[in-house]
Amino acid sequence: MNNNKVIKFGEDVEGYSIPVLNEREVRAAAGLLFLLMFTSILTVILTANFLLLKYAIVIFLTDFIVRVFINPRFAPTLILGRLVVFNQTPEYVGAKQKKFAWVIGLVLGIIMLILQVIVNSYSPITGLICLICLIFLFFESAFGICLGCKFYGWFYKEKAQYCPGEVCDVRSRQDIQKTSRTQLLIVFGFIAWIVVSVFLFNDFFREKPYDLFGIDNRAQPEMQSPQE
């Protein structure tokens, strides 16, 4: 098995009939990109400063170009992800469906580069793409669910192999995976409690907290009135 090729997608692992990727590294990389994109988008929302977002788009697109056209082994965020989870047992997933999902991310990144960076514009289109990217990255990093991979079977009309958590294989769920009616009622009750809390405590929560130890007041120099 030759994993030393520069231009290659996926790695050959003994016992697997197709090239695979380490899902733990992929999830870690998705978490890093989610943190970058979320921070940059939040900066835009709070300060209307697009500088960090433009850098984030360039970083995002560069990383995906390396993943898709060269080799995932050389993608910066996947290398960082490997360093983060190096002590964890690998979980192998099929490379083909991951490549399809990353092509979707690549296309979205190119659109963002054109509209946000080159044209230097913003619109509902860029906002929607940012939201889609955040959702895709969040589901990958938090739940191990590759939303882009879901479209692989629809597009290629074939079953994906070696999916995370073996979701591609039809099987009966174990007892620990089943959700009872009581658990569902608890979730609905929790949501209802959040809604009720908004109505009960909204005005109280809106009050600005005071400085318990007066640290801010001591840090600010006293204002002196001008003498006549």
Task: Provide the descriptors you would attach to this structure in a database record.
3% strand, mainly alpha, single chain, globular, 2 strands, 228 residues, two-stranded antiparallel sheet, 8 helices
Tell me what you see in this structure.
The chain has 228 residues and is mainly α. The chain has a domain at 20-177. It has eight helices and two strands; from the N terminus they run E-H-H-H-E-H-H-H-H-H. The protein has helices spanning 23-47, 51-70, 76-84, 95-118, 124-143, 147-156, 181-206, 215-219, and strands spanning 20-22, 92-94. The longest helix is centred in the last third of the chain and has 26 residues, at 181-206. The chain is globular and about 65 Å long.
The number of E-state strands comes to 2
Shape: globular
Separation of the first and last Cα atoms: 88 Å
Q: What is the succession of H and E elements?
A: EHHHEHHHHH
Helix content: 55-70%
**Structural class category:** mainly alpha
Largest sheet: 2 strands, antiparallel
Q: In DSSP terms, counting alpha (H) and pi (I) runs of 4 or more, how many helices?
A: 8
* Integer average pLDDT: 88
For the largest beta sheet, what order do the strands appear in spatially? Answer: 1-2
Return residue spans where pLDDT drops below 50 for at least 5 consecutive residues: none
Radius of gyration: 24 Å
Instruction: Classify the beta-strand content into a percent band.
Output: under 5%
